[in-house]
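Researcher: Next sequence.
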Amino acid sequence: MSGDQARVSVAVAVPPKDAFDIFTGEIDRWWRRGPKFRHAGGRGGFVRLEPHVGGRLFESIDSEHGERIFEVGRVRVWDPPTRLAFSWRNANFAPEELTEVVVEFAPTSTGTLVTVTHRGWSALRADHPARHGLQNAAFSRMMGLWWGEQMTSLRQLCRQPGN
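Model: Next structure:
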């Protein structure tokens, strides 16, 4: 990890095609819930990824005024079953502030190695609220731990019968 990116890998016991399909098509099942991972916090809602270049990664949030959509990013690379990339923005990002997430699916003798690289954080100023007061390596470590928790959920879902 550097100050600009966080990278995590997880081994899942399914072939690359299945890992890609679960990552993209069942994202709401493995994406953790709660305020650390979703804008909805404890409210209802779901996370979706539209399966094509230009497709949205978004969260639907139930509110007292009805459904609200927060667009996290757009798919930049859609190359099943090996690679996926999408832009990423937090709710407190200015419109021009974007990072990028690249997900790679590599076959192994027991399934697939899924590697997530979240990069481009150097585009945000040092005092940006998304950094939580952390600088460079400490911030990358925090993001790596965040993605690590997400990938643990992916691995658990891949273990379930029928996946």
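Model: The mean pLDDT is 87. The two ends are 31 Å apart (CA to CA).
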